[in-house]
Automatic annotation (TrEMBL):
It is an enzyme of class 1 (oxidoreductase). Part of the sulfo-TAL (or sulfo-SFT) pathway, a D-sulfoquinovose degradation pathway that produces sulfolactate (SL). Catalyzes the oxidation of 3-sulfolactaldehyde (SLA) to sulfolactate (SL). Pfam families: Aldedh (PF00171). Residues 12-471 form the Aldehyde dehydrogenase domain. It catalyses: (2S)-3-sulfolactaldehyde + NAD(+) + H2O = (2S)-3-sulfolactate + NADH + 2 H(+). The keyword S-adenosyl-L-methionine does not apply. Keywords: Oxidoreductase. Its EC number is 1.2.1.97. InterPro entries: Ald_DH/histidinol_DH (IPR016161), Ald_DH_C (IPR016163), Ald_DH_CS_GLU (IPR029510), Ald_DH_N (IPR016162), Aldehyde_DH_dom (IPR015590). Belongs to the aldehyde dehydrogenase family. It comes from the Bacteria. This is 3-sulfolactaldehyde dehydrogenase.
C-alpha cells in the first residue's frame, strides 16, 4: 500500500520519508491507508510554495477569489457521497453524521465565497483637517492550518475557505489519524482554478511536521484546532518568531438544566450532543448541572433516552445511531476516566464500560450520577459518550460551578425563565452559550474559546478578521 502523496505547489509529490503511519478504521480495526511523517524539507518546500504564491494571490480581486471558493464548494458538493464514505471509514462517525459534516463544510465554502467584494477597511477621522486616515485590512500571509481527527472535513473547510477568501495562502497539515479526507479534498482543489502554491498539503505528526510549520518565520498565522497540550506547544513554538496563533482547543461544556426548563427538550438535546460523533466534539455536553427539583425526572428520562441508542458500524448496518470512538488509545482514556470516577463514588446509572462487538473501539452510552465537582471527570475532557450529572440548588451556584473550569469554549442553558437567560448572558464566562438549542455552531457566528479553550476562530466576520492584518495609511495633503 502506497502512502498518500503530499500536495505542494500544484503537484502531488511523493515524500522521501520512510516514516510511515498506518491509518486504521476505528469501526473494524483494519489498516485502510498510509501516510508519511513528512520530512523537514517537504514542509519547507510547502511553506516556500505558499509564500511565493501569496504574492499574486493577495492581489487577485476578491470577486475572482470568491468565484474559485464557490467552485470548490460546488465540486465538494458534487462528490459528497464519496467523501462522506471516506470520512466515515477513517474517523468512525456514522454515515449520516459524515454526510452532515460534509454539508457543513460545503456550506462553509459557500458562505466564505459570498464574502467577495465585502472585505474592506475603514476611514477614520484625523485630528488634522488636511489628513485622511485609512485602515486597510490585508491578508495576513501564509496560514499553517493544523487539523484534528474529530471533524477533519469541517475543520479543513474552516481553515481553507477562510484563508482563500481573505487572500491568504495555506499549508494544511492533516491529522495523523484521519488524513484520507484531506487527500481527497486536495484532488478536488487540484481540479479547480486555484493558482498553484496557494493551497498545499503535508502529512505527518504534530511534534515533527506540526512543529516545523509552527517555527517557520514565513508562516504568518498558525491556525490550529486540537487539544490544549498541543495548543500550548504550538504557542511556545510560535513565540520564537512572534507568529500569530489562532487556537481552537478543547472544551468541557456545562449544560445547565433549570427547574424552569422544558425537561424533554433538555434531554433530547443533551443526549444528541453527547452521542454525536461518539461524544468527540469540542462542544459536546461534558457535564450536566440540573436543578434539584427536576433532577429525578431529568435523570430518569435521560437514562431512558441513552438506553435507546444503537451502537455499531454504520457502513455495515444502516440503523446505527453512534459509531466507535477514534482509536484504541482513546478508548483506553475514556475507560480510565470512568473507572476513576467509579472508584471515587460515582454511581453508574447506565453503561460504564466498553462494548464488545468483536472488532472496533466501542464504548457504551453512559450516565453517571453522584458526582462531586472535584472529580477528574468533571474537570478533564472525556471526549466520549459519557454523561456525568450533578445537581444544584440556586441558579447563582450553577453559574459559578459552570464557570469554574480551565476551559471556556461552549455552554448551554435550558430554561424558560427570562431572568435566568439574562443573568446567564451576563455571567457565564464562555465563548458561546446555547439557550434551549442544540450545541451546534453557526457558520456566521464566531466559534472561539476563553481561557485554555483557545484564542480566536475562523467563522463569520470575526474569523475573517483573524486572518487579516491592518495597515494604517496617514495621508497628509496640502490645500
Ligand atoms: P491533538 O491536539 O492531538 O492534535 C490536533 C492537531 O495538532 C493534529 O494535527 C496534531 O498532529 C497537531 N499537533 C499535535 N502536537 C503538535 C505540536 N507540538 N505542534 C504542532 N501541531 C501539533 O488533538 P486531536 O486529538 O486531534 O483532537 C481532539 C482535540 O481537539 C480535543 O481536545 C477537542 O476538544 C479539540 N477540538 C477543538 C475544536 C474547537 O473548535 N475548539 C474543534 C475540534 C476539536
Amino acid at each position: 500500500m502506497k502512502p498518500h502523496p503530499l500536495y505542494i505547489n500544484g503537484q502531488f509529490v511523493a515524500s522521501e520519508s520512510t516514516e510511515m503511519i498506518n491509518i486504521v478504521n476505528p469501526g473494524t480495526e483494519e489498516v485502510i491507508s498510509k501516510v508519511v511523517d513528512a520530512k523537514d524539507e517537504d514542509v519547507d518546500q510547502a511553506i516556500e510554495a505558499a509564500f511565493q504564491a501569496q504574492k499574486n494571490w493577495e492581489k487577485t480581486p476578491q470577486v475572482d477569489r470568491g468565484l474559485i471558493v464557490r467552485r470548490i464548494a460546488e465540486a465538494i458538493h458534487a462528490d459528497k457521497e464519496r467523501l462522506a464514505q471516506i470520512l466515515s471509514e477513517e474517523q468512525g462517525k456514522p454515515i449520516h453524521e459524515a454526510s452532515g459534516e460534509l454539508d457543513g463544510a460545503i456550506d462553509f465554502f459557500f458562505y466564505m465565497s459570498e464574502w467577495n467584494r465585502k472585505i474592506g477597511g475603514e476611514i477614520v477621522p484625523s485630528d488634522d483637517s488636511n489628513e485622511q486616515i485609512l485602515i486597510q485590512r490585508k491578508p495576513i500571509g501564509v496560514v499553517a492550518g493544523i487539523i484534528p481527527w474529530n471533524y477533519p472535513v469541517f475543520i479543513f473547510a474552516r481553515k481553507v475557505a477562510t484563508a482563500l477568501i481573505t487572500g491568504c495562502s495555506i499549508v494544511v497539515k492533516s491529522s495523523e489519524e484521519t488524513p484520507n479526507t484531506a487527500a481527497a479534498l486536495s484532488e478536488i482543489i487540484h481540479q479547480s482554478d486555484l493558482p498553484k502554491g496557494v493551497y498545499n498539503l503535508v502529512t505527518g505528526k504534530g511534534d515533527t511536521v506540526g512543529n516545523r510549520l509552527s517555527t517557520d518565520a514565513r508562516v504568518a498565522i498558525i491556525s490550529m484546532t486540537g487539544s490544549v497540550p498541543a495548543g500550548t506547544k504550538v504557542m511556545e513554538a510560535a513565540a520564537q518568531n512572534i507568529t500569530k496563533v489562532n487556537l481552537e482547543l478543547g472544551g468541557k461544556a456545562p449544560m445547565i438544566v433549570s427547574k424552569h426548563a422544558d425537561v424533554d427538550l433538555a434531554v433530547e438535546h443533551i443526549k444528541a450532543s453527547r452521542i454525536e460523533n461518539a461524544g468527540q466534539a469540542c462542544i459536546s455536553a461534558e457535564r450536566v448541572y440540573v436543578q434539584e427539583d427536576v433532577a429525578e425526572l431529568f435523570i430518569d428520562k435521560m437514562i431512558r433516552a441513552m438506553k435507546d441508542i444503537k451502537v455499531g458500524y454504520s457502513l455495515e448496518d444502516d440503523n446505527v445511531d453512534m459509531g466507535p470512538v477514534s482509536s484504541a488509545h482513546h478508548l483506553d482514556k475514556i475507560e480510565k476516566i470512568v473507572e476513576n470516577a467509579k472508584k471515587q463514588g460515582a454511581e453508574v446509572k447506565l453503561g460504564g464500560e466498553r462494548l464488545d462487538l468483536g472488532k472496533g473501539y466501542y464504548y457504551k452510552p453512559t450516565v453517571l450520577t453522584n458526582i462531586s465537582d472535584e472529580l477528574e471527570i468533571m474537570k478533564k475532557e472525556i471526549f466520549g459518550p459519557v454523561l456525568p450529572i450533578t445537581t444544584y440548588k440556586t441558579f447563582n451556584e450553577a453559574i459559578e460551578r459552570a464557570n469554574d473550569s480551565i476551559y471556556g469554549l461552549s455552554s448551554a442553558l435550558y430554561t424558560n425563565d427570562y431572568n435566568e437567560v439574562m443573568q446567564a448572558s451576563r455571567d457565564l464566562q464562555f465563548g458561546e452559550t446555547y439557550v434551549n438549542r442544540m450545541t451546534d455552531e453557526a457558520t456566521q457566528g464566531y466559534h472561539a474559546g476563553m481561557r485554555k479553550s483557545g484564542i480566536g476562530g475562523t467563522d463569520g466576520k470575526n474569523g475573517i478578521n483573524d486572518f487579516l492584518s491592518t495597515h494604517v495609511m496617514y495621508l497628509k495633503y496640502n490645500e
